[in-house]
C-alpha cells in the first residue's frame, strides 16, 4: 500500500517506519545526496515526500532511514547497485514536455 504513486510528473514516495527518527530519500534525481530530500512523518507512522520528476525517465533511489540505506520494500522494481545490494527503480510514465 506504500508503493510510489505517479500522478503526472509528481511522484509520492512513502515508507511505513513508525519507529524511525529520520527519513530521507536519495537517488538519481538528487545526485544521491542523502541530506537533500527529507520525508515528513505522518501521525500514521508513514513518512512521505512528493517530488516533481521528468516524465519518460527512469530513476533509481533508496530510502535513508536513521542513516541506513534501504531499497523501497514496497517497490518490486530493482536493479543491482554495484555495492552488493539493490536500488529501487521507478519510471515516470508519459512523454517529456
Key features?
97 residues, mainly beta, 5-stranded antiparallel sheet, 4-stranded antiparallel sheet, 9 strands, 45% strand, globular
Provide structural commentary:
- There is one protein chain.
- This protein is mainly β.
- Helix content is 0%, strand content 45%.
- The chain has strands at 5-7, 10-16, 23-27, 40-41, 46-52, 58-65, 68-70, 78-80, 86-91.
- A hairpin with a 4-residue loop joins strand 4 (40-41) and strand 5.
- The protein is globular and about 35 Å long.
Tally of separate helices: 0
Helix content: under 10%
User: SSE order, as H and E?
Assistant: EEEEEEEEE
Average of the residue pLDDT scores: 93
> Major sheet, described briefly?
5 strands, antiparallel
Count of distinct strands: 9
Regions with pLDDT < 50 over 5+ consecutive residues? none
**Relative strand content:** over 45%
Q: Report the C-alpha radius of gyration, rounded.
A: 13 Å
Cα(first) to Cα(last) distance is 30 Å
Q: Label the structural class.
A: mainly beta
CA-based shape: globular
Summarize the structure.
The chain has 97 residues and is mainly beta. The chain is built from no helices and nine strands. The termini are far apart.
Amino acid at each position: 500500500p506504500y508503493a510510489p504513486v505517479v500522478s503526472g510528473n509528481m511522484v509520492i514516495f512513502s515508507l511505513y517506519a513508525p519507529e524511525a527518527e529520520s527519513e530521507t530519500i536519495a537517488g538519481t534525481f538528487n545526485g544521491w545526496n542523502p541530506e537533500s530530500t527529507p520525508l515528513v512523518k505522518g501521525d500514521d507512522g508513514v513518512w512521505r515526500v512528493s517530488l516533481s520528476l521528468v516524465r519518460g525517465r527512469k530513476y533509481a533511489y533508496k530510502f535513508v532511514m536513521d542513516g541506513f540505506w534501504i531499497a523501497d520494500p514496497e517497490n518490486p522494481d530493482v536493479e543491482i547497485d554495484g555495492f552488493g545490494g539493490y536500488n529501487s527503480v521507478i519510471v515516470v510514465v508519459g512523454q517529456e514536455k
